[in-house]
Amino acid sequence: MRQLILDRKSTIVEELRRINVDPDVYSIFINKAQNVALKFDALSCAQVHVLKQTALICGADSAIPKTAYKGGRGRKFPLILFANRRELWKIEQRLGEQPWMDRVRQAIRKVLSDSALPTLRIGGKRTVFDRTYIMGVINVTPDSFYSGSRYTDVSIVERVASEMTAEGADFIDIGAESSRPGSNSVDEKEEMRRLKSILPAVMKHTHVPVSVDTYKARVAKLAIDNGAQIINDISGLSFDKRMPEIIARYRATLIIMHMKGKPKTMQRNPKYKDLMNEIHDFLEKKIAFAVQSGIDRERIVVDPGLGFGKQLEDNYVIIRRLAELRNLNRPILVGHSRKSFIGKPFKLEAEQRLEGSLGVESLLINNGASILRVHDVFEARKVARLIDLIER
Predict the structure, then answer these.
(1) Which of 3, 82, 103, 365 keeps 20 to 30 A from 214, CA to CA?
(2) pLDDT of 355-382, one tens digit each?
(3) Which is nearest to 118 in space by CA: 391, 331, 261, 316?
(4) Residue 333: how many CB atoms within 10 A of its CB?
């Protein structure tokens, strides 16, 4: 006897074929082999007990708080549902008989139907993320945390943009203000001054979409006017109320990142009661806000914000549980490259963190990252191609 690791549909089908199972029943076993855990928040006491009993009837199970057994009118409770996809389908069908459980039923239906690859609109093109995309970083700042990414001379920026493009970058991200922990904000005029000479130079030396890392609306407009198609807002539309209007008006693509606090103070003992829930909730609400502001949902990317208001272990949790953000149905971008959580346990400076960055990259791809923001395009691209070959 041996345990099978049935991590994808193709593997399940392969094993069923080996023992000569009727192909007509493949779908039954595919659904039985794919297990999920779904967490529901703020259910009524009645909803908790109905869902728990329905799960048991269908062969699944659920965990509920001890206090839920005592009841309580008006109180809300969480529940974690443990089921395979076949059991989820049965639960969803049974809940259809009870209209007051429709919110729960719709959530389960969304999980059952969510199998499509994430897509993104950039300009007039639509990208399907059937592989890992690489975003190269160019910082036109004198104080970014990694010295190898600081470029202030136009001729050097031109060379780097050409090299990144040749090495396989799918996007290039330009930052004119450092957001490293403890950094001071840059005056809007200075940020615009830095970009005015650099952006046109980059545009001449790359054919890939260019992103500008800014949370200021006027800077975003300048970037778009000079050819940028993506705005990477580390504040997730929180710092400048004018930003949504600029993104919507010019139909730019938007990266919404989660950050606790501001760069100057974000690493002063950040704490979370429920890290992944807070990140998921923030991103979900910001997506809804962006859409309400006129931004096309298909032009939105999400980023959990590694290193932005996160303690050391928080970053590791995000990497391990990144797939929990998949149900936002947006491409997931992660900026992990050479950050302190890679070097801190081994006392390595940013210049010594390449191997660690590449190791983390493989985990991120396996856990659902669509885009990786990196300093080392050539190396990251090679790793992504190999992991995509194995995993996708």
Answers:
(1) 365
(2) 999 999 999 999 999 999 999 999 999 9
(3) 331
(4) 25
Q: Where are the beta strands (DSSP E) in the chain?
A: 35-44, 61-63, 76-84, 119-122, 125-128, 133-139, 171-175, 210-213, 230-233, 253-257, 300-303, 333-334, 371-374
Structural domains of the chain, count: 2
Same domain, 108 and 161: no
Confirm whether 373 is a catalytic residue.
Answer: yes
- Measured at the CA of 58, the angle between CA 53 and CA 60, to 5 degrees, comes to 80
Give the Cα separation of 287 and 65 in Å (integer): 30
Residues forming a β-bridge with 6? none
Q: In the structure, what pLDDT confidence band is assigned to residue 73 with cuts at 50, 70 and 90?
A: confident
**Is 107 part of any domain?**
yes
The catalytically annotated residue of 330, 339, 353, 381 is 339
For the question of residue 339 being annotated catalytic, the response is yes
Structure token pair of residue 108 = 């389960």
Interhelix angle 9-18/26-33, nearest 10 degrees: 130
128/41 Cα distance (integer angstroms): 32
Retrieve residue 222's tokens: 């300048």
For residue 318, give the amino acid letter.
Answer: I
The model's pTM = 0.93
Examine the domain organization and report whether 154 and 297 are in the same domain. Answer: yes
What is the amino acid identity at position 208? V
Q: pLDDT tens-digit profile of 251-265?
A: 999 999 999 989 888
